[in-house]
Amino acid sequence: MKLPDGVKMTPMLKQYGEWKDKYPDCLLLFRMGDFFELFFDDAVIASEVLDIALTARDQDKAIPMAGVPHHALDSYLGRLVAAGYKVAMCDQVTEPDGKTLVERRVVRVVTRGTYVPQDAPGDGKLAAAALSGEQASIALLTVGTGLLEAGTFSKDEAMSLLFSFSPDELLIPRGQEADFDRNSRDLTPLQGVRPAIVPRERSDFSASFGSGWLCKRWGVASLRAMGIDDLDPASGVAASAVRYLEETQFGGSDHVHEIRPLMSDGMLILDNTTQTNLELLEGDGASLFTVLNRCKTPMGRRLLRDWISHPLSSLDVIAFRHDCIGVMAGNPSLLKKLAAVLAECRDMERALGRLSLKVGNPRDLGAVRDTLASLPGLREIVSSAESGPLSSIFDGVPDLSELTELLCGALSDDLPRSLGAGGVVRDGYDDALDDARDAIAHAEDNIRAFEQSERERTGIKLRVGINKVFGYYIELGRSYADKVPDDYVRRQTVSNGERFVNERLKEIERRVYRAERDIGEREEILYKDILARALENGASCQAASRAVAVLDVLRSLACVARDNSYIRPEMDESRIFSVKGARHPIVESTHGVSFTPNDIDLDPDECSDKGCIAIITGPNMAGKSTYLRTAALVALMAHIGSFVPAESAHIGLMDRIFTRVGARDELARGRSTFMVEMVETADILRHVTSRSLVILDELGRGTSTYDGMSIAWAVVEFLNLHVEGRTKALFATHYHELTNLSLPKLLNLSMAVEESESGIRFLHKVVSGPANRSYGVEVARLAGIPSIVVRRSEELLSEFESASSAEDREMEVMSKKYVQREIFFDVDREGVLEELAASDPNQMTPMAALDLVFRLREKSRRILGFK
Ligand code: ADP
Ligand code: MG
C-alpha cells in the first residue's frame, strides 16, 4: 500500500498496509481495542454509507479514520454489504501487552451472499452458475442453513430457478459476464436488489475437480448417492459455491453436509414471470405467502416460501401433504397442541448455520437447545393415534436426547450474547466452575471479615471498599492520619481520607481476580466443548429442523384451510381441470365475503366433451384477470399440497403453469411492453405440453390492433392445433373476433354484466358464451370520464354501428375497438379531456360553452379520423 504524501510509516500502518494489500477489493475493518477502524479511502466510504463521523488518526489529518464499536459490528456489516461492499475483518489475535504490536489477522470476509445477520432476517443466499451452450448448471446455497441444491437445466429453466431463489451473490466463470448480464436482467426480483455478480476462475467450476473435492470433504465415494452425477457440471458449480464460502469464512462451512438435486422430476415448473405475476411471495402487499402463512417458526416460514415456489408434480408426496392437512384441519385441539409446542421452537437451522460459520454466540446455542427440548413433545403429539400420517414426519430423524440433555443441563436459561462475561454455563454442571463461582460469592464475606479483623487489630473505624481502577482498598478518615499501621501502603488520596492496601488485602484481591479469570476461562473451555458436541450432531439437528419445519408448514396450511373453508382437491393422472366455486385466495382475503366464486371446467382429453381452451371476453373491470389468476392459483395451491379455495376440485397432475398477464415492470427492464409480451409468449409456445396450464391475459395489447389480434389468433390456433394432445388454456381478450374462431374444444366464456337504467353493474360471474358488447362507453362513465365525453362517445358509437355495411364490416369492428381502448389509453386524446376538465361551465356564457363544444367536437373528429 502506498501511503499518501506526508504520512510517516509506523509499525501499525505497516501491518495495516500488508493486510490491505491482500484484500484490495474489500473494505478492511482493523480491530483496535473496542473498535473496528477503517482508514484512508475505506474510512471515507464507511463514513458515508454508515453515516458515522470521519475523523483522523493523526494531528495533520493525513490519515482519515472512521470506526465502529465491535459489539455493534453486526448491523454496520449489514449496511456495508447491502451497499455492495465486501468487508474483510482484521481482528486482534494476540492479547495486547502494551509494549509490542498486537498481532492481527483477517479472520473473515463478509460479502452479500455470505452475510448472516444476528438480529435481522436474512440467510445469506449464495448462488453459482455456469452456462454451457443452451444449458446452464446452477447451485443454490443458503449460507445460514447450509442447504445446498444443484442441477443442470435449459437456460430458461435455470434462470427461473435462480430467480425464485433470488440470490444475494452469484458466482460465475470469468468470461461469461456478458452472457449473464444479458440474462440477469430477469434475476432482479420486483422489490429486490440485483445479485452481486462475482466472476471466478473457470477452473473453479470443473465438474471432475469439484465432485472429487466434495467427495473428499464429505467422505463419500461418489456424489451419486445424493442424486447428482459426478460428471454433471452441476457438481462443479456446487463445489465452487462451497469453496467460496470456505474461503471467505475461513473454514466455516461444516454445516453444508450434502448436496441435493434441484428440482428433480417431482417438481412442477414455475417460470419467473409466473412467480411475479401471481404474487406468490411477499412483495409490498398481500401475497399467497401472506395468506397461507400461519407458521410458528422461522424454519416453517422459510419452508413455506420454498414450497410455494416449488410446487410438486408427484402425486404421492402431494397426497401425503393433503392427508396430513386433512387430519389436522378436522382436529382443532390437535392444531392447538402443536401450535403450543411449535411456538417454543426457535430457528435451530439458522443458529447451527451461524455457529458453523463461527459467527454464532451462546444465544444461538440456546436456540438449538430450546428447539431440541421441544422435540420430544412434538414426537409425542404426532405419534398419537389421532395424528395419523403425521407420525412419519420424524422418521429418519436420529435420536438427539443425549445432546438435548447435555445442552439443557449445561446452558443457563438466559444466555448472554457473548462469551467471557460469564453466565453461559449453569451452576452444578462443572465442579471447577462452581468452585470459582463460590470463591466470588464468598469474596464479599471474606472482605467483611477482613474489615472486621482490621478494625479490631488497629482500633480504627476503617472501611474496606472496591474501586474499578485501583481494586480493593482500606479507607481511613483524615483524623487517623498519624495512626496508619506500618504494613499499610498508600494508594490514593480522596477528599475525606486516604486509601491503603496491605499484603493480606492484596492476597484476597488476587484470589477474587483469579476466580473471575477462572470463571471466564473455564466457561470458554466448557462452551467450546458443548459447541463441538452440538456441531458433531449438526446433520442430525438439521434433519430435526426440517422435520419441525414440515410439521409447522402443514399445520399452517391446515389452519388456513379450516379458517377459510378450503377443500381437498381430488388429484390424479388425468388432465382434467375442473373446479366448482373457485375463489381467488388473495383477493378473497382482502375483500372478505363479497368475492364471487366461479367455476372452471377444462379437459383436453379427446374422449371428454369438455372444452379445453377458453376465450374469455367482457368489459374492462368485469373480473377477467381475476378469474384467470384464480385458476392459476388454485392449480398451484393444489400442487403445493395445500387445500384450495373452492367448493370442489378435480385436478389432473400438471407439469407447468405458464402465465402471461398484465403489463408492468417493462420500463424498469428497458424493454417495450410488446417485446416483453412476445418474449414471454415465445417461451410459452416453446415449452407448453398437453399437461400444462396456460394463462394468457389480453395478449397483443401492447401493439396495434391488427398486429395484436393476429398474434392472439395465431397463438390460440397454435395451442389448439399444434400442441400434441392439446393443452389447457384460459385466454382473456378484448378482441371479440376471437370468439368467432371455430376450432375444436374451444370454449367461449364471458363476464356477466347487469344492465339497467342507471348504467351497468359487474357481477364478476363467468357465464358461457361470448360477451355481446364491449361496454367501453359504460366503463368510461364508471371510471369518471366527464359525461360530455361519454355522451359524445355514445353518439360516435351509434354512428359507427349504423354506418356498418357488408364491405366495411371489418372497419367497423376496428373502430369499435378503437373507441373502447383508445378513449382510455391514447395520450393524443388527453388534449381534449384536459381542455374539458379545465373549463368551468358556471363561469361561461352560453356562447362560450357552445364555442367550446364546437372546438372539442372538431378536435375529436379529427383525432378519430372523421371526414
Ligand atoms: P378485468 O381483467 O376484466 O379488467 P379484473 O379482474 O381486473 O377485471 O377485476 C376488476 C375488479 O373487480 C378488481 O378490483 C377485482 O377485485 C374485482 N373482482 C374481480 N373478480 C371478482 C369476483 N369474482 N368477486 C369479487 N370481486 C371481483
Ligand atoms: Mg384485466
Chart the SSEs and their pairings.
Blueprint: H1 11-22, E1 26-32, E2 35-39, H2 40-50, E3 55-56, E4 64-69, H3 73-82, E5 86-92, E6 104-110, E7 125-132, E8 135-142, E9 147-154, H4 155-165, E10 169-173, H5 177-184, E11 196-200, H6 207-218, H7 233-249, E12 260-261, E13 269-270, H8 272-277, H9 288-292, H10 298-309, H11 315-329, H12 332-342, H13 348-356, H14 362-383, H15 401-410, H16 431-458, E14 463-467, E15 471-477, E16 489-494, E17 497-501, H17 503-536, H18 538-563, E18 570-572, E19 577-582, H19 585-591, E20 598-602, E21 613-617, H20 624-640, E22 648-652, E23 656-660, H21 673-687, E24 693-697, H22 705-721, E25 728-732, E26 746-756, E27 759-768, H23 776-782, H24 787-802, H25 809-825, H26 830-838, H27 846-864
Parallel strand pairs: 1-5, 7-10, 9-12, 10-11, 13-23, 18-22, 21-25, 21-26, 23-24, 24-25
Antiparallel strand pairs: 1-2, 2-4, 3-4, 5-6, 7-8, 8-9, 14-15, 15-17, 16-17, 19-20, 19-22, 26-27
The structure holds adenosine-5'-diphosphate and magnesium ion.
Adenosine-5'-diphosphate binds at residues 587, 591, 594-596, 598, 618, 620-626, 764.
How would you characterize the overall build of this protein?
By secondary structure, the protein is α/β, with parallel strands linked by helices. It contains 27 helices and 27 strands. A seven-stranded mixed sheet has the order 13-23-24-25-21-26-27, sandwiched between helices. The longest helix has 34 residues, at 503-536. 41% of the residues are buried. The model is unreliable at 664-670, 804-808 and 811-826 (pLDDT under 50). The protein binds adenosine-5'-diphosphate (ADP) and magnesium ion. Residues 587, 591, 594-596, 598, 618, 620-626, 764 line the site of adenosine-5'-diphosphate (ADP).
